[in-house]
Amino acid sequence: MKKIAVVAANGKAGKLIVKEAIDRGMDVTAFVRGENQTVAEKAVVRDIMDLTAEDLAGFDVVVDAFGAWTPETLPQHSTTLAHLCDCVAGTDVRLLVVGGAGSLYVNPEHTACVADGPDFPDAFKPLAAAMAKALEELRARDDVAWTYISPAGDFQAEGERTGAYILGGEELTLNEAGESVISYADYAIAMVDEIESGDHIRQRISVVRK
Asked: Which residue numbers delimit the NAD(P)-binding domain (predicted)?
């Protein structure tokens, strides 16, 4: 049985990842800042920056479901991810990151990203930039078995769980309907599939509804 730690588990993505993993028989511990709002029976109440290597030792996989949205907290995408990397560096513990879509490439040369496009909302550009910076810093870590999973462009918190998705890579992938969309529930399926397979170590992958 795989032992999974989900950090920032009380978030919308975190709660669904916890549930998906438990439903598949995994041993899940939710790491939260306040009262545990997940279905996990095991919970550790601690700020992400207070976690230590000892806290995360013994897990097979750590899922980073952290999110920050306000201008003053956006830099925490980098600081929290770097801290988690330091906690698992040089170990066999895998680190899976709930990523963003803004940094997905839109050309084969990988010189233009979704966030560079004229239709990308200005309101989301600071968030996309902060998450892209954290990803670039993660790419430099050769001491961590990380996997970064970007959702589709339209990431729907209340979307339905279809159970079907297309696995993509570094480039924005569209489904047969020409859409880039996925629900949080289907994203959680893809995340737990990657937890089970471990097929994309030190890679960024992406998912879109089939």
From this structure: 9-193
Compute the distance between CA of residue 37 and CA of residue 10 in angstroms, rounded to an integer. Answer: 6
CB of 148 closer than 8 Å to CB of 205: yes
Question: For 117, what's the count of Cα atoms within 13 Å in the CB-facing half-sphere?
Answer: 16
What is the C-alpha to C-alpha distance for residues 188 and 90, in angstroms, rounded to an integer? 27
97 within 8 A of 201, measured Cβ to Cβ: no
Q: Is the separation of the CB atoms in 135 and 204 below 8 Å? A: yes
Q: What is the pTM of this model?
A: 0.96
Element (H, E) at 27: strand 27-32
> Taking a C-beta distance cutoff of 8 angstroms, is the pair 28, 40 a contact?
yes
Three-state DSSP class for 183?
A: strand
Show the domains of the chain with their CATH numbers.
Answer: 3-209 (3.40.50.720)
Q: What is the rounded distance in angstroms from the CA atom of residue 32 to the CA atom of residue 11?
A: 9
Backbone angles phi, psi at 47, to 5 degrees: -65, 145
